[in-house]
């Protein structure tokens, strides 16, 4: 299986960008122990404070699907989506570059 790379763009209702960003940062913290999530970055667009970008890198589609199933319909997801006026997810083909490397296992 191959890694899954995605960019999400979420535009909050006017004046709610900071609140949306905080909810997404809380979600990111919740992914700390999730081995299938290799990268989850929350960014605010400099010239549009209500526009939040999320950059994701997942071990594989199964790992992403498992997390999505877990959060579907959760109170946190519902609260975040109430703040969103528009959203899009861009699926990417990861070709390479500099970034996280898979964890190494100790043979001992």
Automatic annotation (TrEMBL):
It comes from the Bacteria. It is an enzyme of class 1 (oxidoreductase). Keywords: Monooxygenase, Oxidoreductase. Residues 4-94 form the ABM domain. GO terms for molecular function: monooxygenase activity. InterPro entries: ABM_dom, Dimeric_a/b-barrel. Its EC number is 1.-.-.-. This is Quinol monooxygenase. It comes from Actinoallomurus acaciae. The lineage of its organism: Bacteria, Bacillati, Actinomycetota, Actinomycetes, Streptosporangiales.
């Amino acid at each position: 299986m191959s890694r899954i790379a995605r960019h999400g763009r979420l535009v909050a209702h006017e004046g709610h960008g900071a609140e949306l960003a905080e909810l997404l940062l809380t979600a990111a913290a919740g992914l700390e122990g999730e081995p299938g999530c290799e990268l989850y970055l929350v960014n605010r667009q400099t010239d549009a404070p209500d526009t939040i970008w999320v950059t994701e890198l997942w071990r594989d589609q199964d790992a992403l699907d498992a997390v999505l199933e877990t959060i579907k319909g959760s109170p946190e997801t519902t609260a975040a989506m109430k703040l969103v006026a528009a959203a899009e997810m861009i699926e990417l083909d990861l070709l390479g570059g500099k970034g996280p490397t898979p964890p190494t296992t100790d043979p001992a």
